[in-house]
Amino acid sequence: MTELQKYLAEEVAEDLTDGIITRREAMRRLGLLGVSGAAASALLAAGGTAAAPAAGRKRGRRRRDGSMTEWEPVATEEITFDGPDGTLMAAWARASKPRGAVLVIHENRGLNDHIRTVAGRFAASGYSALALDLLSEEGGTDSFPDEAAVAAALAQVPPERFDADMKAAVTELKRRVRGKDLSAIGFCFGGGMIWRLLAAGEKRLSAAAPFYGPFPEGGSLRKARADVLGVYGGLDDRVNATRDEAKAALEEARLKHELLTFKLADHAFFNDTGPRFDPHAAAEAWRRVLNWFDDAGDHDLGHGGHDRDRDHGHGRDRDHDDKRGRGRGRDDD
């Protein structure tokens, strides 16, 4: 059995172990691979971990260095810090060797485990992350009985308070991660909040990534300095109706930007706990966000804000047509 055949046979055994296929189907597939009888039974009994013959060390070849790496989201810790009108609450994930820091703004479901995991993913990828609870003054997201109550509470808060609280969170982020570039990301309601933060004149951000967030009516970005990656779902007609306004504001402010639309994805496609999760679009969006934040840090001349000539801003629109993606059903976010 070749190395590739062994790998494919072990995949069949793992599918059986995980309950994806029946034993009968596993035996059929192994037979197609040329593995049958006692050998197939032994492989299935071992769950795909049958030992391979030890390979002898080849002589005359230079030894090459290598490594094994393990990756998982960093566990977050609950923190508090001073806000403009009282104590603010957040989830904090510290990168072991941070190359930057990220403010994370939640959906209209509040600061939940999904958003905490996003912060942890950033920390595991080299960006310390602070996920702010925009219902801090109401006792925090966890003080509400369900998501509907959270959304109703968010709807009652004057948007200007959100602006002030987010600016305080940027200050806390800068205090915790000194001398590094700061970025911000938000999803759904939180994507709209990131647009608001930029429109409110927050200059300390090197990069921002609002995900399918509505652009504030009449918003101006002339005081912002961030490179902006706006992410949209092609099936999200409601939020996409504000995309042209966002584009016009970015161009007027001469900010470097990209408006990236995943044509086959819907609103909230990044949330892996929701019904519209699109794994292909989400994975590609995550890769692009990390690259965007990295690139912003590479050409930023200062820490915590740009000092580049505004006349060199540029932007583009891009549709991402992932034929593997699928649209999901809709609900309001």
Q: Which superfamily, in CATH terms, is the homologous superfamily of the largest domain?
A: Alpha/Beta hydrolase fold, catalytic domain
- Following the backbone from N to C, one meets helices and strands in this order, namely HHHEEEHEHHEHEEHHEHE
The quaternary state of the protein chains shown equals: single chain
Helix content: 25-40%
> So how many helices?
10
How many distinct beta strands? 9
> Under the CATH scheme, which class of the largest domain?
Alpha Beta
Q: Radius of gyration from the CA trace?
A: 24 Å
Poorly predicted runs: 50-58, 301-312, 323-332
- Estimate the strand proportion: 15-25%
Name the CATH architecture of the largest domain: 3-Layer(aba) Sandwich
For the termini, the CA-CA separation is 52 Å
Q: Pairing-aware structural class of the strands and helices?
A: alpha/beta
Strand order of the largest sheet: 1-2-4-3-5-6-7-8-9
Q: Determine the mean pLDDT.
A: 87
- Domain count: the total is 2
